Queue: 3 jobs
Job 1
Amino acid sequence: MTIKIDLGCGGAKRPGYIGLDYIDAPGVDHVLDLTAEPFPFADDSVDEVYSAHFLEHVTVPNNVLMEIGRVCKDGAHIQIWTPYAFSNEAFFYGHTAYLTETVWYQWCVSHHREAAPLLGGRWLLDSVTFIVNPNVHGELQSHGVPIDFAIKYHKGVVEEFGVDLTYRADLDAPGVEPKRLWSHTRFGEANLLVPGGGEPGVAAPPTTLTQRLKRWVPEPMKPALRSLRRH
């Protein structure tokens, strides 16, 4: 039997999953404190773990992470969504953790051996997906700002982000190169982020100071400026 669990599901449990939360809401199958109590599953028994907008409420996630590592089968799929730290949503009252992809790169890529006691094995970071509101994406395009650049350096572009991971019991399991993706919706079509641009409809970024300044001069003022240069 395939076991799929939804951690911190509240009243919005993902269909086909077993819901766990500390509140007794419709759809919650097991009521418990995920931050302190063991999950009600045997070691190496869970095939999929899903969580959406739960981890940002947890100040110290050690028990959550260790229990995920304990119950996951080798090769289990883990998907976790949280608000992006550089979004207004991240600062909703009650949130206590402000997360970006950096912590996942540390736990799963650069410091995976140091993180092994916390994670109960090796978590391979398969991909990071950034959710960008379509209206924000349109504004970026109208200003010629590549979406990869905006995600890296601008606040308020990414609303939430999700990580897809594979649990491996073997700490020496070969690593993977995480994909960086973006989408307009959580389960919509995901697009590969291309460093330096490469997005259809977006011009290459200006390279000289003059080119950069021209971008911010209002169109009605440009004839007057060209006239001044001739004098």
Job 2
Amino acid sequence: MRHRDGSVDRLIAEIASSSQGVVARRTLLANGVSPAQLRSRLKRGSLIAVHPGIYRVGHQAPSVEASYLAAVLACGDGALLAARPAGHLWGLIKGTPPRPEVIALVKLRLAGVTTHRVRRLYAQDAARRRGIPVTAVPRTLVDLACVLSERLLARACHEAEVRYDVTPAQVEEVLERLPTRRGVGALRRILHGDLPVTISTLEDRFLAVLAQEDLPMPETNRPAGGHRVDCRWPDLRVTVELDGYRYHGTRHAWEIDRRREREAYARGDQFRRYTWGDVFEDPQLMAAELHTLLPSRRAA
């Protein structure tokens, strides 16, 4: 079906409204826009070429999401945003948005885009985030293990658990398909609690208070029951959760926190929950309570 010229702009705007302001030539042609109509809009600037066959609609500066979607669309069917930009899109890593990075079945050279050819794209590794085809969170963690430090990778794993309830078993399913990826060892140590890490300033300060009070150090961010807990002394049967608002200020996180508390009591642990104010602003009451739960190292 060929559209009259007056209706083409409305059609393009409608398609772009659900795709971050980005449209593909193949999509427009499939919806009846003619090559001549495309050429006229490219000439007058209502369509702006971003990559071969991929256009941005209008003159506003592109959003990060628009740049990411344009890169994925340019790499063909099945292509996925991956690694650092995928981690940024899921909220697993912080900082300046990384340049687009895409995995695809073909190797392409695109300006401003890092591309990786893969032999196979698994359906279970694909998801959509803000309308952008992206690697699912477990696959994203595996890709991030190749490029992040252990501390930043631990933060990403924590975000994945808190935001999306991702489990070590889900990541292990990806590793079964990709057993030779770099960083697998560190990722597994983090997931299974074999690598002692802290993932927040709040945890760092809490450990500093323990040291000042000459109290024993806990295991940090290790699995216990069905979830990872912030601090635990297994031999003393004590669990402590540290409530920074960033990680605990959503309904989903609140539900997980309550579940962790129930699991702690079910395994016979004493359970305490401390806030930023407890740790940073007035730690004396917290320290006094911990002295009743934990023997000092000098006494030991």
Job 3
Amino acid sequence: MLRRLGDRFTIPITLVVAPAGYGKSTLLTQAVGENRLDGSGIDLWLTCAPEDAAGSSLAQGLCRAVGVLPAASIERSVEAVVRAMWARSPNEVVLVLDDVHRVPPGSDGAEVP
């Protein structure tokens, strides 16, 4: 599994799916830790929480994860996140969203662009 997660810098989306308690967060933490040693790219991390069902909360969390200030709107915040990630180019950047199941389908958070 760690080797597969090592490919996250070359694959647009990598999903880790398993029931609660199977060690997904531990696996992700280990992959990020190993990347600190070999430096394949930049890992940015957001642990989703129930309040991220609100789009504004998720947008603020994404801004924190990439190190920018939230903007006045969700859309502007997302634009700031994208700009911050592109600014790290040519380094590959991965945004790890842990516990994304806490953002229910159909919620405002799930609709964040």
